[in-house]
Amino acid sequence: MADPRIIDITLDDKTILWRSADVEQERRIAIYDLLEENSFAPLRTQADGYAGPYKVFLSVADGRLVIEVRREDGSPLEAVILGLASFRRSIRNYFAIFESYRQAIRDATPQQIETIDMARRAIHNEAAQLLMERLDGKIAVDFDTARRLFTLICVLHIRG
């Protein structure tokens, strides 16, 4: 029986050189929300008919995102590799607005915080849509899953 969802997701800690407490909190929330509810279905048919659930390992190698998809028992199924060039602007904007939001929480008015948060959501939504397009034909994900995966992709890009 098909169970197209992620049950475990791990980030390559060797890729992440440094992360602040705020970014770590963002990572924890994204993983928690992703594991609570997601839709993740690799489109390559497996010879034995396996269709989930999945364990996922995310890493960045040679400027590419590597999504290793594994069976529930941890055995490998496939790796999907995406070039990251098309995400660079979204990642840069994500970190800029993330920092603005952190600062605004300390000294901005509620209206200013709401404006920054709306911009933050817009960047996230745009990047999620891009991720869905880049995964088209490889892995089917819903919008919320793509948003959370984009957050984790950003965490992999922290360089200190």
Layout of SSEs?
Layout: E1 6-11, H1 21-36, E2 40-42, E3 54-61, E4 64-70, E5 76-83, H2 88-107, H3 110-135, E6 139-141, H4 143-155
Parallel strand pairs: 1-3
Antiparallel strand pairs: 2-6, 3-4, 4-5
Helix pairs in contact: 1-4, 2-3, 3-4
Structural class computed from helices and strand pairing: alpha+beta
* Fraction of residues in helix: 40-55%
Can you write the helix and strand succession as a string? EHEEEEHHEH
Report strand %: 15-25%
Most strands sheet: 4 strands, mixed
**Low-confidence runs:** none
Find the count of extended strands (DSSP E, 2+ residues).
6
Radius of gyration: 16 Å
Task: State the end-to-end CA separation.
Answer: 44 Å
Estimate the mean pLDDT confidence: 88
Compute the number of structural domains: 1
The order of strands across the largest sheet is 1-3-4-5
Count of discrete alpha- or pi-helical segments spanning 4 or more residues: 4
Envelope shape:
elongated
What does this protein structure show overall?
It is a single chain. This protein is 47% helix and 22% strand. It is α+β, with helices and mostly antiparallel strands and 160 residues long. The longest helix is centred in the C-terminal third of the chain and has 26 residues, at 110-135.
